[in-house]
């Protein structure tokens, strides 16, 4: 549900590491998805269950179009993401992927903010948006105009996305007016 300022559904920029996939010694990651000899319990253990439930709740409530901002886009094509989501109970995420489903990949010293702003300059049509990331990989987002406007939801490393994030996520996806301006948010 949007606030009526835009006919477009809201946009959700989504990272995976420490948002849905917790980085710990006993968990799996993106490279495990790509190996020929996948662990037998990969699909059961890849996505953190409370994070899956929180994301599904957000997708049902606000019906955003999702743009992947994860570094996994450097080595995984869309088809592999679709398989991953479909096998881990995130079919709704597959259905929610934006037509322009990935932020441009990070280059060299880019921060996470830069590809998101590039995506916004190319595709933003005035819709509300939120960015879900963790403080470690969400470089450049803390203190950015997106953060100051309440659009960035940081997940704690080792904890991930949880239902406690939903009020802030809803605020960004529904109540905030779309104020992104390429001139105002220009890369410096």
Helix count equals 8
Give the neighbour order of strands across the main sheet.
Answer: 3-2-1-4-5
Please provide the count of β strands.
Answer: 5
Query: Element order, helices and strands?
Result: EHHHEHHEHEHEH
Structural class category: alpha/beta
Architecture, according to CATH?
3-Layer(aba) Sandwich
Question: How would you describe this structure to a colleague?
Answer:
It contains eight helices and five strands. It is an alpha/beta fold. The protein has a single domain, classed as Rossmann fold, CATH 3.40.50. The protein has a five-stranded parallel sheet with strand order 3-2-1-4-5. Helix 7 (145-148) links the parallel strand 4 and strand 5 (152-155). The protein starts with 10 loop residues before the first strand and ends in a 13-residue tail after the last helix.
Give a short summary of the structure:
With 188 residues, the chain is an alpha/beta fold.
Task: Map the helices and strands.
Blueprint: E1 11-14, H1 30-34, H2 42-45, H3 49-62, E2 65-68, H4 78-87, H5 91-96, E3 97-102, H6 113-123, E4 129-134, H7 145-148, E5 152-155, H8 166-175
Parallel strand pairs: 1-2, 1-4, 2-3, 4-5
Helix pairs in contact: 3-8
Key features of this structure:
Rossmann fold, disordered C terminus, five-stranded parallel beta sheet, 188 residues, 8 helices, globular, alpha/beta, 34% helix, disordered N terminus
